[in-house]
Structure formats: C-alpha cells, structure tokens
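Worked example 3. Consider a protein that binds adenosine-5'-triphosphate.
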Amino acid sequence: MFKTVAHMAYQNAFLRKSRALLLVLMIGLSMAVMVGLEGLYDGMSQHMIEKTKRSDCGDISLFAPRYRTENSIVYHISNAGKKVALLQGMKGVRDAIWRIESEGLAQTARKSRPARVVGIDVADEEKFGRYSDFLQKGSLEFGKDGAFIGNVLADKLKLLLGSKVIFSMQDSSGQLQSVALRIKAIIHTTNIMLDDRAIYISRQKLNKLLSLPPKSATQIAVLAGDTEVKTLQQHIKKAFPKLDAKRFAALYPQLKQTQQLLDVFNEISFAIVMTVVFIGILGVMYVSVLDRIREFGILLGIGYAYRYIRLQVFLEALFLALAGFVLGSVLGLLFLVYLKYHGLDLSVFSSGMSMFGLDSTIHAVIKPGYFVSTFIAIVTASLLSIFLPLRKIKRLDPIEVIRSIG
Amino acid sequence: MIRLVNVNKYFYRGDPREVHALKDVNLSIQSGEFTVITGPSGCGKTTLLNAIGVLDNVSEGEIWLEDREIAHLPATQKTDIRLNSIGFVFQAYNLVPVLTVEENIGFIMRLQGYSDEAIRIRVREVASILQIDQKLDSLPNFLSGGQQQRVAVARAVASKPKIILADEPTANLDSKNSTALMEMMKELNRKEGITILFSSHDEYVMKNARRTILLNDGAVVSS
Ligand SMILES: Nc1ncnc2c1ncn2[C@@H]1O[C@H](COP(=O)(O)OP(=O)(O)OP(=O)(O)O)[C@@H](O)[C@H]1O
Ligand SMILES: [Mg+2]
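Given these inputs, the predicted complex is written out as structure tokens:
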C-alpha cells in the first residue's frame, strides 16, 4: 500500500506543473543563498582565526609567568632559541617561533602614538606564517635601521615607505632607549592588534636595545599539527612547567565572540530560509488539499483511512521539498565553489571590514554539514507545514462531499 | 443479509428545521439480490443508501449486516466495514485522477493487502466484463462519463464486497450509456452473485431490476 500512497503523492505533488516549479525554485534558491551565506560566514571566521594564528599567537603561545599581567620585559623567556628547537621536535607541533616585544612610543616630527615594537626574524616568520602574505608595500629586509609598520599605524602617523620614525621604550634596567628607524615595509595582517600598533624590527636588534641577553623572548608561538590542541597544550605544559601556555581561544576572546556572532548570523539566516520553505510548502499544500477536498471525501467514503491521507499529504510535501533540496544543493554547491575560488569582493565596505579583522575579499568554506542541516530542516519544515492542511481533511465529513455530488 | 429494523433519520439543519428523512424503515435484502430503490426526489433514497453504507448515522433503529449490528459502531470500525464489506459507486467523481484505470480498479484490493498478481488478474477479469479492458492504462480524465462509471463499478466489485451500493449511478449518463451500465451490472450480479442495491428514477433502469423498493416521504411504500 505504501507504494500506491507514495505513487499518488508523487503524481499529485507535480500535477500542477507551474505551482510545483515555483515552489521548487523558491526552496532551491533560498537554500542556495543560505548555504552560500553559511560558507561565507564560516570563511570569514576561519580566515580571521587563521591569519591571527599565523601573524601572532599560533594555536598555543608560551609566556613567562606574570608577563601577561605585568606586560613588562622583566618577565621574559630566556634561551628561547633552544626552547623553540625543542618544541619543533615535539610530536604534534608543526612549527614554533619566538618573538620579543615591548610597549613604547612611536613619534615623527609631528605626531606620536603609543605602539609596540616587535622583534622578529623574517625567515622564521616566513616559515611559520608565510609572512610575505602580509606585505602590503615595500620589501621585507630590515638592513641596518629598517623597520616594518602596521598599515593602520602607518596611516595614523602619516608614514610612507622610506619615512623615519623614532621609537622609545624602557629597557630591562628601566633606562629610556630610543631608536631611529626607517620604514621599509607596510604590513597588513588583518589582525587589528598588530596593524594598529606594531612596528617590527630585527629580533637581535631589539634584544640589544632592551639590554637583554641574546635570544630572550616575550612570546613563543606554536602551530599544532594534526594533534588536538588541547592535548598538545598538556604536553607542552608538562615539558615547560615554568612557562604559561595559553591556547588561541584564551588569547583572543574577542575573536571567539566574533565567531559566535557570525554563528548567530548563520542561525538567523537559517531560520529565515526555513520559514520561507515552511510558508511556501504550507501555502502550496493548503491550496492543493482544498483543490482535492472532494477526492479526499470520496476516498474516505470508500474506506481509505485518514492515516493514509496523512501519509500521502506528508509525502507530497516531502517530494516538493526534496526537489527543492536537490535544486538547492546543486545551486548552493555551484555558488559555494564560486565563492571559494573567486571570493566575494566587499571592498566597498573594506574599512568597516578590516575593523573586524577581515579582508575585503572573502572566500567561502564548504562543509558537508551545510547540506545535512538544510536537509534536516527541509524535512522538518515539510512535516510541520502539513498540519494545517491536514486539519481541513480531519474535519471533513465524507457525507458532505458525497451529498454535494448528487 | 441486510436487515433494517425501525430505522429513523432526522435532520436538524436547514429549512424546515427538522426533517424526518427516514420513517420507521423496516427492510431486508437477501444475498444475490438486484434491487432498485426508487421514489420522487427528496423521498430519502440517498439517505437510506448512506445509512446502509454506514456513511451516515441513523437517529434510531438498527442495521444488521449478516449477524452484526453496524449502525452504532465507532468510526474506525465503520471505515473498516466500508472498506471490506461494501462497494460504493457514487454519481460522479468516483475515481482518483492521478491513478490509471487499472490502478483505480485495483485500489480497494490494494488497501485490503492483496498481492500484485492477485490484483492484476482480478482487475482484468472485471474490466473485461465491464468492457474497459482496452483502457487500463488511461487516466480517468481521458474517459467518457459512461466509461468512468464502469471503472467505478469495476473498482466496487473487484474486491468482492458483500454488497454494492450505488446512488443513482446512471444519473449523469445518457440513455445508451445507462442501458449499457445496467446490463453489465446485471451480468455481474448473475455471474458473480454479487448483491447490488442502487437507486434510480430512470424508468428503464427500474424495469431491469428484479425487485423494486418504493419510497415516499421517507417511508417504504412497497418492496
Ligand atoms: N444534510 C441534510 N440536512 C438537512 N436535510 C437533509 C440533508 N440531507 C437530506 N436532507 C433532506 O432529507 C430528505 C431526503 O433527502 P435525500 O437526499 O435522501 O432524497 P433523495 O430521495 O435522494 O432525493 P433525490 O432523488 O433528489 O436525490 C429531503 O427532504 C432532504 O431535504
Ligand atoms: Mg439522492
């Protein structure tokens, strides 16, 4: 009997060609848009996280105890080179890097701003986080007095390539130190904490300026391989019990929040699309059931049980929804593939976007989960949408229908 | 086989507010009968057939199908009786538009759970008696009114119900098609021994019946 009911449902679902087509298009298009949005949102947050990890803290960062609360180079990690080498040899570590940094003041002849100077090694950074990706202008060579500068800070200080800037800081013994630097490169990491504040100079040079022993670090960043970050964190804690090992999520709680915000966007667009699907199916099924009220009356009269009608109406809604899902999957996938490889250019909003740590071109991510969750939602929406039409039939007395014929 | 004992039916809607549509109806119909219910318009033919078919409730009295009183069963059991013991032919719109003639004829049998093969054989058998075996693959909308009614009769008889109830099955047909349908129903009655009870006010149709029940104003005048 199921076969017959399913057959009737299938035939009826696509009986009204244009009505069915319209609904399928509506479901398909809205699903494609939703899947595309989901991919973009995920793309945005993954992109933000990935760049922050590469330009700054990795999956895990190590600090000397109290450094993060006192923010003073007194609390530094000594012999960082050796520790990094040890970490690089550890299972589950893809790469590790050390940096030294200090708060201070950047000034030109006319402007000054609080900033932080970061001592880096360009070759190490390149290996760790493809540093050259972040180069906006200039070239990545420090030379004798060279420095790189975050693009937002450069704007604020009105610094161009070749401009001079003085950076003043306190060394480890509390003496004020100043250094004259020439801008060799402008760096855009999309991490606002760096772009707005960082001046990069050679690691060795900064160590000397701060009167610290060579290879002193304020931060060691670690990128995880395939191992789960939590497990790796435990391993690292065991290996370096005197250091403070923090995970990305703890270091950048605001990124976590942005991600949560994007998740909420995701859920909202999901809810909107599902409402559209729900109302669409509801409308079509309602009209279609009203159209056939006489047919249902006769069927009930000759002994077709109500539960078969319920099944039939559900299957009708489901067939329409599934047709929409198939169309939506194809369109959605095409859309996602396009967004993944070409990206979506939002340069119109680029100033606002970079505030959130985003690039102006966003590339989507594709996850099978998008399709699974829409599938579940579409089936649920079609299930919910039949209640109202079914109520019409439930209230139907076959005798009324049969009398109306004669 | 079917026995009505003091059946009364009142309607409380419309104008006049109370209509006494069936008045103390006592009737019995034997297995294998070919009976027509007749009488002027509004005399209660449809009401009577709907009562026997447990489509509609009666106000008072009993209806016995073999040794079972069926007028006061719960709704689900009535559905069951309609499905398994009674074949219906209505005046129009009997068929499921999206199913072929073959599927329509086999519909009740399928609901009853017969095998594909059993259905196939039986459908062909009744279709040939009703001379619609050439149309098995058509959809109902492509058939004439007469052919559609024959398909409806075929569906009703295919599952071999105890009785077939047909309320003015020929009302929408011209005299040629009416005659043909009556002939075929009579043949089914003779060949398969199926009990048939139908209503009509068509002179010719009435002459064909073996027994005539005359109703007037809700009461049985002669039977
Ligand atoms: N649902 C209803 N509500 C109120 N009165 C009704 C209802 N159905 C039928 N009646 C009344 O009951 C009486 C019998 O009606 P019924 O339809 O059984 O007559 P009929 O013999 O079938 O007539 P026809 O030959 O015109 O089909 C009529 O007076 C009719 O008005
Ligand atoms: Mg009538």
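Take a moment to read the result before moving on. The interface with chain B takes residues 1, 4, 7-8, 11-12, 15, 294-295, 298-305, 308, 398-399, 402-403, 405-406 of chain A (CB under 8 Å). Chain A has 17 helices and twelve strands.
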